[in-house]
């Protein structure tokens, strides 16, 4: 007798459907706190349909895409359960919609229309959390200590390019470190 799509599944049914050993499902419960089967008396597990869909996504990322457990945990943290459920179901439109929404949230706000722009502004990436002052760059007095003589407070085009290159290198290092975690 076939079960309804909304019916709860036992661990043996889920393991058979997804071609996974039962002990792997139990292990994943310890690594992914998003997988929460209902447990009845005697410890018997019953998986909700949304648990099974999430497990499909996790299985796909681990076995088919070669992600590590930490990598999938980061995906879940960054994108939420819906992202992995969509991956497990093969729903490309949902994946694209979630990705576009995340990119829109992470995008910096557009610059003010009246803000003056110089020729070097297009080289800058992102916004600084704190405004750097002249002392930080070794150019003399801090901003709040009065004006700096003309010409001595501006970075040369070469120094600015070197700083931009260092920023790109640091961002790439951060990206690589985030992948390892």
UniProtKB/TrEMBL annotation:
<dbReference type="GO" id="GO:0003677">
    <property type="term" value="F:DNA binding"/>
</dbReference>
<keyword id="KW-0238">DNA-binding</keyword>
<feature type="domain" description="HTH merR-type">
    <location>
        <begin position="10"/>
        <end position="78"/>
    </location>
</feature>
<feature type="region of interest" description="Disordered">
    <location>
        <begin position="102"/>
        <end position="156"/>
    </location>
</feature>
<dbReference type="GO" id="GO:0003700">
    <property type="term" value="F:DNA-binding transcription factor activity"/>
</dbReference>
<protein>
    <submittedName>
        <fullName>MerR HTH family regulatory protein</fullName>
    </submittedName>
</protein>
<dbReference type="InterPro" id="IPR047057">
    <property type="entry name" value="MerR_fam"/>
</dbReference>
<dbReference type="InterPro" id="IPR009061">
    <property type="entry name" value="DNA-bd_dom_put_sf"/>
</dbReference>
<dbReference type="Pfam" id="PF13411">
    <property type="entry name" value="MerR_1"/>
</dbReference>
<dbReference type="InterPro" id="IPR000551">
    <property type="entry name" value="MerR-type_HTH_dom"/>
</dbReference>
